[in-house]
Design brief:
The complex is a heterodimer. Chain A has one domain: Formate dehydrogenase/DMSO reductase fold, CATH 1.20.1630.10. Helices cover 72% and strands 0% of the residues of chain A. Chain A contains 15 helices and no strands. The radius of gyration of chain A is 22 Å and the shape is globular. By secondary structure, chain B is of the alpha/beta class. Chain B is built from 13 helices and eleven strands. In chain B, a hairpin with a 5-residue loop joins strand 5 and strand 6. The longest helix of chain B is centred in the N-terminal third of the chain and has 23 residues. Chain B is globular and about 70 Å long. The chains are: A mainly alpha, B alpha/beta. Chains A and B meet through helix 6 of A and helix 3, helix 5, helix 9, helix 10 and strand 7 of B.
Chain lengths: 407, 373
């Protein structure tokens, strides 16, 4: 009963905290709301007319939605790179960053689910997928595995920070015996979400571009580069806009993670390119399409070469310790890496899987405005959710939001 | 099961009935079906309450599957919220005093159809129930009658198909017949069959072939090859479906329950043969052109956002007729029949011609062979 009361007060206090803020904060939230409304309008058009309003066709049947879904799973998984040192290895440096990381994971996972729902032809019959009410084709379909791991990870990433913040809110110290097992579990789980998502594609013998053993490990490497890169950028913003103290040392440690992951990612990229182009087979055609274009169809060329050059430049710069420790250069590199991997692990991965088609037909894919509208709407929703979570968490951590026994 | 899948290589005549009767018709191990209760209890994933709810689905019709089950409060709430959203409109109509009997009945049918179970797990009685509802619904909406069946696979039947590359001249009569027979969307020009026009002397170069030609055929120096769903014996599309909305029937047909499909298009990505089509918008067929002899798993009207595909014209083949494409082919390039019948033409072709299949290295075991004279 007392807990309920505390919880009620927490909800009220956090609503209070998130609805009030500086002018910049209000403009930011208003802007996000506006984008979300555009997204909802676009989605309502899609609901009415069906997925024909998107650029997808029978030849390229997954597009921007699934690309963003794939990328965001990686971002969500990256929270683990902060969780592990903080909770498990007891490295105190990350303590402040970890709540931000987990908030980011929650926002990314909600965006993932939103992208999957946006991609569905029949959102009104999605209950067919709920175990017990519908028919859950487990363990045959990798998609059911993905449903389990994503929702499980979402639960973990909500419950652990919630427990910690709930204790802090009451001015108590969180009990490590409660959250450490959850943290260890979430470390394993994060690897699972990205690996399972890779298996979603890797298991399809029909699509040689995806059907290679390196896909899963490469997903992990790129995720552990892009995710922490985003966390660094977010921490930079939080540092300049709030009183939340984040030491340079913390950011430097995360930068090291980004660097190592980006280096491994480049090595795997080289291995992949070598396999596709040293002795090209019929199965290399998708890679040819992606990197050089096929039959004069070159829609992805500018994107992938931009991504590769950004990736290489960022990785090379990050490799030098002196450059990495200059924060402005670091932020720039993180931005490059994030965009590069968004292209590479997003539509640079999904679209070529369908091109050429099973019988060699080359039909290109170009997202429509409505599709883009829904996509940025979902990104805005993610940013909105993250802002709310971060503002509450920072308020509690700084002691600004505290349980008042008198009320 | 798996060694019986190699039926194409040996014992063609005996395999169909040799298979020990599975405890349940669904043939899958994953427990969507109530007869798997014993396996399922080991599976920590399915709680006891869940078992009960699915177990009932097998014996009850779609309406009762949803409403007549024991459930705890949590799942009851889950169902209520889901149904409230979708059913609110239907309920308001059916409870309305001013609405006529017809619209009440329509709302009742819509309600029951929205919450019916997966066709694969239905009993014959439930199948009949949903088919009757769909026919009645069509009558209420358009004032016209259709005939729809839920005919099951016959015993000792396994359908197979052979395509004579030497005979095909690329007339595309099969494509047109298929579109008309199967009520395919006219707006998007959907076609299950694709005819690939290939250059003589280059062999089977699908990537250089043209599957969308508009000129007089047979074109000089070209040959033709048709593709469609190959009804694989080991279909990758079936494995990946998250809700078991697509499956392999006992007579080898790979079918879809259009009402159970959630439209994720994972099966489309998994198919190596371009065999599946998606309804990107609401499919439209002019009323006068609708084929009214329908099967639940076959050519009945689809809705937007679901998959569909060739079913070897299940509405015809289960009645002993040839699929529309076979019937329409003017050159006799298409041969269809029962692989378990030693006197069938398809068996003669398999035994006397040098047959081959596409992408055999993928292990999908298509039941669609090509041969030349």
């Amino acid at each position: 009963m007392r807990r309920l009361k505390v919880f009620r007060s927490l909800v009220i206090d956090s609503i209070d905290a998130t609805t009030r803020g500086s002018r910049k904060y209000n403009i930011w939230m208003g802007f996000l709301t506006f984008i979300m409304l555009i997204g909802m309008y676009c989605y309502s058009i899609q609901l009415e007319h069906g997925l024909s309003v998107t650029g997808m066709t029978d030849r390229v049947s997954w597009g921007l939605y699934i690309s963003n879904f794939t990328f965001l799973v990686g971002v969500a998984a990256a929270a683990v790179m902060l969780v592990m040192p903080t909770y498990v290895l007891k490295d105190i440096d990350f303590k402040q960053a970890v709540l931000i990381g987990e908030g980011l994971a929650v926002a990314a996972l909600i965006m993932c689910l939103a992208f999957v729902v946006a991609d569905m032809g029949g959102p009104s019959v999605l209950w067919h997928m709920i175990p017990g009410i519908g028919v859950f084709n487990f363990p045959n379909s990798m998609l059911t595995w993905d449903v389990i791991v994503l929702n499980g990870y979402l639960f973990l990433n909500i419950s652990i920070p919630f427990y910690i913040l709930f204790r802090r809110y009451q001015g108590k110290v969180p009990n490590p015996k409660v959250y450490i097992p959850g943290a260890i579990l979430s470390v394993l789980w994060a690897v699972a979400i990205h690996l399972v998502t890779a298996f979603l594609y890797q298991g399809l013998q029909a699509r040689p571009f995806w059907n290679n053993a390196l896909l899963g490990p490469r997903f992990l490497a790129s995720a552990f580069a892009a995710g922490p890169a985003l966390i660094i950028l977010v921490l930079a913003i939080i540092r300049s806009f709030t009183d939340f103290k984040i030491k340079d040392k913390t950011i430097n440690k995360i930068a090291l993670i980004v660097t190592v992951a980006a280096q491994i990612n480049i090595i795997m990229l080289v291995s992949e390119l070598f396999k596709e182009f040293y002795a090209p087979t019929h199965h290399s055609e998708s890679a040819y399409y992606l990197f050089f274009g096929l039959d004069g169809k070159t829609a992805l060329l500018p994107w992938i070469w931009t991504a590769i050059s950004m990736n290489v430049v960022a990785t090379v710069i990050l490799t030098f310790k002196r450059l990495r420790e200059n924060l402005n250069i670091l932020y720039f590199c993180c931005f490059l890496l994030f965009v590069a991997i968004w292209i590479e692990k997003g539509f640079g991965l999904i679209v070529p899987g369908f091109i050429p088609g099973p019988y060699g037909k080359i039909v290109e894919y170009l997202p429509t405005k409505i599709e883009v509208g829904v996509t940025i709407g979902i990104w805005a929703m993610g940013a909105f959710i993250f802002t709310i979570l971060a503002k509450t968490a920072i308020g509690i951590e700084l002691g600004k939001i505290r349980y008042n026994k008198a009320t | 099961m798996s060694d019986n899948k190699k039926w194409y290589s040996l014992n063609l005549g005996f395999n169909g009935n040799k298979e020990p009767k599975k405890s349940c018709g669904c043939g899958k191990t994953s427990g969507g079906c109530g007869d798997h209760n014993n396996d399922m209890s080991e599976d920590a994933f399915f709680e006891a309450a869940v078992d009960a709810s699915i177990g009932d689905e097998v014996r009850k019709d779609g309406f009762e599957q949803v409403f007549d089950i024991k459930m705890d409060r949590r799942s009851a709430f889950k169902k209520l919220t889901a149904s409230l959203l979708i059913g609110a409109g239907a309920v308001s109509t059916s409870c309305s005093v001013v609405a006529g009997d017809d619209s009440k009945e329509k709302a009742q049918i819509d309600w029951e159809e929205q919450f019916k179970g997966n066709y694969k797990l239905m009993t014959d009685k439930e199948k009949k129930g949903t088919v009757e509802r769909l026919m009645r619904s069509y009558e209420l909406r358009t004032g016209k009658n259709i005939s729809m069946t839920s005919e099951n696979a016959k015993e000792d039947v396994l359908f197979g198909y052979a395509f004579n590359i030497s005979k095909c001249q690329g007339y595309m009569d099969c494509v047109n017949a298929c579109i008309e027979e199967n009520n395919q969307d006219r707006n998007s020009q959907m076609q299950y069959i694709r005819i690939h026009e290939m250059k003589d002397g280059n062999g089977f170069k699908f990537d250089e072939a043209d599957d969308n030609y508009y000129h007089e055929v047979p074109a000089e120096g070209h040959f033709y090859m048709g593709t469609q769903c190959f009804h694989c014996d080991n279909p990758p599309c079936v494995e990946v479906c998250p809700v078991q909305a697509t499956w392999r029937e006992d007579d080898g047909l790979v079918v879809i329950d259009y009402d159970w499909c959630v439209g994720c298009r994972y099966c489309m990505a998994a198919c190596p043969y371009d065999g599946r089509r998606f309804n990107w918008s609401k499919p439209e067929v002019p009323e006068a052109e609708i084929n009214k002899n329908q099967h639940y798993l076959g050519n009945r009207m689809r809705k937007k956002g679901v998959m569909e595909k060739c079913t070897f014209c299940v509405q015809r083949s289960r009645k002993g007729q040839n699929p529309a494409c076979v019937e329409a082919c003017p050159t006799g390039a298409r041969i269809f029949g029962n692989l378990l019948d030693p006197n069938s033409t398809i068996r003669w072709v398999l035994e006397n011609k040098k047959v081959f299949r596409l992408k055999e290295d993928l292990g999908t075991e298509p039941k669609f062979w090509y041969f030349m004279d």
